[in-house]
Amino acid sequence: MEEILRTLEQQFAITHQNKMRDDLLFVDVKKDQIISLLTYLKDYAGFTHLAFLQAVDRIEDKKFQLTYMLYSFQLKTNLGIRVFIDREKAEMISIDKLWAHAWQYQRELKEMFGIDFPGSPRVDESFVLESWEEMPPMKRDFDTLEYSIKTYYQRPGRSTNDPKKYMKKKLYNNFAKSPDTGRKND
Amino acid sequence: MDKKDMKNIEKEMKLANEGLSEKERTLFSDARPTPVRPLNKYVEKFLNWARAESLWILGYGTGCGAIELRPLMTSRYDMFRYGIAPRPSPRQSSVFIIGGYASLKTIKRIVRSYEQMQGPKFVIALGSCTINGGMYYDSYYTINRINYYIPVDIYVAGCMPRPESLIAGFNKLKENIKAGKCDGMNKYAKNFDWYKANQKKIIKDWNMPDYNW
Ligand code: SF4
Questions:
Q1: Which of chain A's residues have a Cβ under 8 Å away from the Cβ of B204?
Q2: CATH classification for the domain delimited by B38-202, as one of 3.40.50.2300, 3.30.420.40, 3.40.50.12280, 3.40.50.300
Q3: ipTM (interface pTM)
Q4: Model-level pTM?
Q5: Which among B110, B118, B116, B97 has a CA at the least distance from the CA of B51?
């Protein structure tokens, strides 16, 4: 693993590394190197399995973070490749030539986050949403509560209990008073 | 009123079936549902008793609450002793259990299955999600109040309700049927335009006939 990391550092512009566990680490890479990096990892380093491809909306930095999670059966190690792409013109290189099943992830990302993958098969078809006309719903500037109130009829009289306070009021009052626990009501 | 007027009114009463293509339109009925008037008091009472004692439920689990139907069917809770049996097809069933949250995609199928069921038909809505959205009240894709889209006879509250409460719900439904209080089907027929408007407000790609039977 050390060796692979060294190669990655030497050959690709890796901006950041983060080791979470012995078998889980993340590296950040520039957008234009992703294909060469993934090809290297897949064909030479034994990371043959693409476990998932997902996105996080980093709205504060005006970026989408894409994570390509790879797994190596020889090293029994997960390696996450993170790429930050521009949020406004969200576009990414399609990797369906490397892993054929990636088109499904990319189609979902297109629908949920609006990230385009030019050339990916069937990327414009809807994935789970039917007849969706708003902006992609997983973007964090989409206000789901407001949309829900506007679209689906709310039943009035809904109330919320803070579970902690509620349980305290319900249970721990008696619990604290009982002599054999010796506990104060906290 | 002369004949021409009658014809015009009849034409207006027909459903437009705008979601279908020209060719498909000829294949589907364009009649509206009509309310059914109850029969003679004693006959109706007997029929209601018979209806209440053989509830056949449509095996269509729409949300997480549907998982509670399995223990209900098997020997632990054994719903067969109440005369309740699951059926595979909407044509054969008389009770529709909405098993929890309904997403936009599901509500389309729910409406379609509900309309395909033959009357008299009853709806049990399971779980808080069907009542006010439950914990999905702020979700972008789940509806909040099921009774805006199809009429509901009994709500069973809880997240999720255990089979015991479902049985209680069934017993309450039986009571109501015997008392002649469950005429959701007539309610649906009478307020058909209102229900349709609500359904079409959220289902934007309406590509099925307006009344599916
Ligand atoms: S009420 Fe609870 S159990 Fe039932 S569908 Fe909603 S979230 Fe699931």
A1: 131, 133
A2: 3.40.50.12280
A3: 0.80
A4: 0.84
A5: B118
